[in-house]
Amino acid sequence: MAVTEDIDFIENPDNLIDKYIDSYLIVGFIGEGGMGRVYKALHQHLDRIVAIKILPPHLSHDQKYKSRFKKEARAAARLNHPSIVQIYDFNDCDGMSYMVMEYVDGLNLKQLLEKEGILHTNDAINLMIQACHALAHAHEAGVIHRDIKPDNFILSDLGFLKMTDLGLAKIGLLGDPHSLGMTQTGAPLGTPYYISPEQVQSDPVDHRTDIYSLGATFFHMLTGRPPYDGKSSPLIMAKHLNETPPDPATLNPDIDPVMAVILLNMMEKSADDRPQSMMEVCHTLETHQQFLIKQAYQKELLTNQNIPEAPLVESTPETVAQTPSSEIDPVEIPGVITAQNIPEPSKKDPKEKSPDQSVIIEPPTPRDPTLFSESLFSELVREVSFALGDETKQFIQSALAAVNSSEVGLKIDQYQAFARELTKNIGNITQREKVKNACGKIWKRHLDDLTGNPGRKEEYLSLLYMTQLRRLIKRIDQDSTFDIVDACLDILDLHPRKIPVNRKDELLDEVDHQLGNLHLKKQFRTEVEFITLS
User: Fold this and answer.
1) Any idea of the CA torsion for 187, 191, 192, 198, to the nearest 10 degrees?
2) pLDDT, tens only, 356-400
3) What CATH fold (topology level) applies to the domain 13-102?
4) pTM (two decimals)
5) Which of 186, 60, 178, 160 lies closest to 102 in space, CA to CA?
6) DSSP state, 210?
7) Which in 183, 230, 471, 520 has the greatest CB count within 10 A?
8) Residue 94 annotated among the catalytic residues of the structure
9) Which is catalytic among the residues 147, 151, 206, 210?
10) 106-283 has which fold?
């Protein structure tokens, strides 16, 4: 079906609503940019909501704009990443070129910043890490965005970031600046508030120009304002070229010194002085994020147990910069929390009234030590989102329900069962492996945070392993009248607190032998692989 010919596209964007463009019914207006208008539409045959970006007739007849519009579609079509808006189709209808895209229900970062002002550091880092992964994927495909700004990142209602609008993207070979130059000599491309110095000078650019613009976007997220302001675009662009950006910590005292250094390093004037790849930026952010998580985790432990705080190994610009990408754990938590070094609790009645107060001071409620860390669980959700995208929340909630738990009530000894439930229903093999790796990664961080005492760690793992093994046997063999696991431990002369990793298979073989029933054996072999002793 064709669009009605008498529509005044230029005057009123709502004139297209309830009209058809080929098989797409326009149901709403989303927004407008320099390269056309974006509408919400329904594909009549697939019953799928999509976004349609339309180049108006007066620009569709201009070959320069039409070519640029088509180039944007081709650039996006080369990319397949959960943090990049997908392109489904490109076509012409009654003199209008249009592209069909994935519809993302949510605010863009510009709208979010207008609403929130300043984002919390951890939230900003999470969003930036997602942006880094998206841009790293684009750069590996030879696509340079060249117009990174808050407007071009959409935050879905589930909290996932999606990069969009490749209207200024350049397609070429990664590392070849001559294939990624300006499309018009002497005409800077980009948005003044976030444009890189090399774009201002109309110099050839490479992937590092996106690193600068992402740094400027990050600056806005953490401080509530762009790095530079001015009365006109030329004045703002001149500041990008000549002025040092203000210290973000002076605009937001919650920004720690290391984060300020990371941010300003992304905005170095010379591309050679910036991080040389998006993955380098990503690893740096993840490294510092892990320090902040461990810092918060230790404070939580110390507060709940009323223990004087010991200093952490400080994250400095040097330690962050020198950490290899394979090591995202540069921090040690000193000391081992044991019964011997916990100070004597105060003898003072916690409900005793202060001389100057009549209010009863209630003691703080200690956090249940059997619960899995909330900060680590949040990190798991972020890791899983890279594999599952918008389906993450559905899979997480389903797995939690299967183990009768919640996000804030997941117990440590439920984690492995939760991980099993989370992965078993994922049909795509690649996605399933990514989620399994994410679950293992977070479990390792939990163990690293647990204690620096190898003996205690070994005992902890053994007891946890035995608990999960017993639960598995009880679930698959509900009619059993005796404890198979204890019987196997006796046969092999093993202690439940000290199960050597090299004897795990021996124990499992003995349990398998004791089960007897072939159906039970098959179910046991299928599910036991999700239980780990390390």
Assistant:
1) -50
2) 444 444 444 445 566 777 777 888 888 888 888 878 888 888 888
3) Phosphorylase Kinase; domain 1 (3.30.200)
4) 0.56
5) 160
6) H
7) 520
8) no
9) 147
10) Transferase(Phosphotransferase); domain 1 (1.10.510)
